UniProtKB/TrEMBL annotation:
Keyword Metal-binding annotated: yes
Cofactor(s) needed for function: Mg(2+)
NCBIfam families the record matches: MTHFS_bact
Highest classification ranks of the organism: Eukaryota, Viridiplantae, Streptophyta, Embryophyta, Marchantiophyta
Record has ATP-binding as a keyword: yes
UniProt name for this protein: 5-formyltetrahydrofolate cyclo-ligase
Gene source species: Riccia sorocarpa
Molecular-function GO term, any one: metal ion binding
Signal peptide: none
Residues that coordinate or bind ATP: K16, K17, E18, L19, R20, R160, C161, G162, R163, G164, G165, G166, Y167, Y168
EC number: 6.3.3.2
Lineage: superkingdom: Eukaryota
Catalyzed reactions per annotation: (6S)-5-formyl-5,6,7,8-tetrahydrofolate + ATP = (6R)-5,10-methenyltetrahydrofolate + ADP + phosphate
Family annotation (InterPro entries): FTHF_cligase, FTHF_cligase-like_sf, NagB/RpiA_transferase-like
Length: 237
């Protein structure tokens, strides 16, 4: 995609700002009971899916209630403590490094590896109990199978609008470049979203915005990319 001229960039930035403001208001008005019902349904869809059960390595966000993100508590617990019938799983979770869109995904093996930052968001400590640096997924010897992603607004073509920090887009660009360099199988980029977060009009995006392969909603799983359609079945009700 060609770079946009200055005026177009500013118009795009303004459209995104307006969309974010509108969606934040929508989420504030979304009843807690409805949110909790959708949280349960979305996590159930993920946990019962073949693509989840058959995957071994994950990156996943740690949900923040204050931000009204789709809850991932049950999903994270299942990855860290899989059933006896499931493959052992590995998990990398995000830690923000600065205000310049730099974020790492660090390996954790227990919720005891997490701390709560000043924003009230859980994140991994930089070192393990032995004082050794935690492994970054960008330095791992094996690829992840699935990345479970948050977002603020989505459309049914996979376009995603985050909260404006750029952390996930920067990380995803780095990780997908690593996958290409290593000739690894491309991971599934799966976003979890409330019903009100999916809009009919195309979400405005730039060349740095990374689309998702699939959405998981309370109504079911929506594979979008051809990659996702090969690995996932449509489960929308």
């Amino acid at each position: 995609m060609a770079s946009l001229p200055g005026l177009a960039v500013e118009l795009l930035r303004q459209k995104k700002k307006e969309l974010r403001s509108s969606m934040k208001l929508t989420l504030r008005k979304f009843p807690l009971e409805s949110r909790q019902e959708e949280d349960a349904a979305i996590q159930k869809h993920v946990l019962s899916a073949d693509w989840f059960e058959q995957s071994r390595r994950f990156c996943a966000y740690l949900s923040c209630a204050k931000l009204r993100e789709v809850d991932t508590t049950q999903i994270v617990a299942s990855i860290l403590q899989p059933n006896a019938s499931e493959l052992a799983k590995e998990l990398y979770v995000p830690r923000v490094l600065d205000n310049e869109a730099n974020m790492v995904m660090l390996h954790v093996s227990s919720t005891n590896d997490l701390i709560t930052n000043s924003m009230g968001i859980a994140e991994p400590e930089l070192t393990d109990s032995d004082g050794s640096p935690r492994e970054s997924v960008l330095e791992a010897n094996y690829p992840v199978d699935v990345l479970l992603l948050p977002g603020l607004v989505f459309d049914r073509s996979g376009r995603r609008c985050g909260r404006g920090g750029g952390y996930y887009d920067v990380f995803l660009s780095k990780y997908l470049e690593l996958v290409k360099d290593k000739n690894w199988k491309r991971p599934l980029l799966v976003a979890l979203a409330y019903s009100v977060q999916v809009v009919d009009d195309p979400v405005p995006v730039s060349e740095t915005d990374v689309p998702v392969d699939a959405l998981v909603l309370a109504s079911g799983v929506l594979p979008i990319s051809e990659h996702a359609k090969k690995l996932m079945s449509t489960q929308l009700t």
